[in-house]
Amino acid sequence: MKSLRELLDALRGAASTFDEMQREKAVELLQWEHDELRHVFALLVLGNAVGLPAPPVELGLGLLPDMEDDLRLLVQRLDTAHSPLSRLVSSLRVD
Amino acid sequence: MPRLLFMTGKGGVGKSTLSALFALGLAQRGEEVLLASLDPAHNQRDIFQQSFGDDALAVAPGLRVLEADIRAWSERYLRDIERQVTESYRYLTALNLDRYFRVLRHSPGLDEYAMALAFRHIQREFGEVSTIVVDMPPTALAMRFLAAPSVSLLWVDELIGVRKAIHERKEMITRVRLGNAEIESDHVLRRLEMERNRYLATEALFRDAGTTVAVLFNPDALSWEEARRIDEELEGLAFPRRLHVMNKCRDGVDEAGVPDSLRPYHRVVAADAPLLGVDALRGFLESHDVLPAGV
Question: Is B39 one of the catalytic residues?
């Protein structure tokens, strides 16, 4: 009886891990797209830092207090900016 | 809601004097009038020979005057943003934020936003008057102020589009990972939607039937060429009611070259001496046809 319960628990655990893996696989591309869009958004609002046209100054300044995460993402992206293609290729699972 | 009359034109055409004459003329007709100067040059204090600030002072029956302190509005706004940013980014206080904000004071675009803040304040505080005559700064700044709602709407719509796409993906990711868990609302999207409503309201006000933009010029080719460009730009921005006024008219000056787009125009003759003080303005109004039909 005990060993049957252990077997069922092990099967349940394996199913849950498999489910989690499948869910992660499903959202991987979405997550990449989400991060890229946030990057685009940060560039649109704060792009004058790198020479892009900027929105009216009050719009950018007004959003600044709520854009901490977006700013952090923008700074993080500076570190990986040298290999955007490799990131894209690995996200799309192209060998 | 008060009628709005924006007085625009090239520097030196007589915007401030005509603003004072129009405002006093309307007050003499029995209207409750506010003359609000958004021009950092502060000419109304020279015309009425008294100091003005953001609080309106009565200068004649039915007429109050204020001169918005654009620099003070810009300083107040920057201080407020600085406070919010310092609260949100506490870990950045080690950096010299003060220095950053000193640079911001010279950002292009801040003057027209300070003008917009002063204008919003005027709308809020003087909703009971029948007409607000706005003495505008010279062309470049005036046009940027009048174009600001339309230009900002283009940006804000684009940003809202990207932000919504981000939110949709975030929702999908959360649903796949955690089932039907609620995701927190997006502060940035909320702020953008708030700004959008504000720009839409200002744009609607500018296009309202009660809003008129007076394009002033003098009897010289340079000034009517600039007036033609202002008028063209206003047409592009869909300002429906425009009024053309030639100021400082003199007999014997050839007006044949006035562009067709500025016709018909109302003529105001040149004063023999500078119009300083309420009595001088009243005297000029009594002896000349100053107020155009329909104002």
Answer: yes
Collect all residues of chain B within an 8 Å Cβ-Cβ radius of residue A56: 109, 113, 148, 151-152, 155
Provide the whole-model pTM.
Answer: 0.85
- Distance, in Å, from the CA atom of B248 to the CA atom of B288, rounded to the nearest integer, reads 12
Element (H, E) at B232: helix B221-236
**pLDDT tens track for B215-256:** 999 999 999 999 999 999 999 998 989 999 999 999 999 999
CA distance B224 to chain A (A): 30
Alpha-carbon gap: B161 to the closest alpha carbon of chain A (Å): 10
Asked whether the ipTM of the predicted complex exceeds the cut of 0.85, the reply is: no
**Cα A59 from Cα B43, distance rounded (Å):** 31
Contacts of B181 in chain A (CB under 8 A): none
How many DSSP H helices and E strands does chain B contain?
9, 8
Return the H-helix or E-strand segment holding B68.
Answer: none
